[in-house]
Amino acid sequence: MKLGIVGLPNVGKSTLFNAITKAGAEMANYPFCTIEPNVGVVSVPDERLDKLAEMYNPEKYTPAVVEFVDIAGLVKGASKGEGLGNKFLSNIRECDAIVHVVRCFDDPDVVHVNGHADPKGDIETIDIELILSDIEIMEKRIDRTKKMMKGGDKAYAAELAVYEKIYECLTAEKAARTLEFTEDELEYTKDLQLISMKPVLYCANIAEDDIKNPDIEYVKTVRDIAAKENAEVVVISAKIEDELGQLDEEDRQMFLDDLGITSAGLDLMIKASYKLLGLISYLTAGPKEVRAWTITNGTKAPQAAGKIHSDFERGFIRAEVVSYDDLMACGSYNAAKEKGLVRSEGKEYVMKDGDVVLFRFNV
Question: What is the distance of C-alpha 256 from the center of its chain?
Answer without folding.
Answer: 24
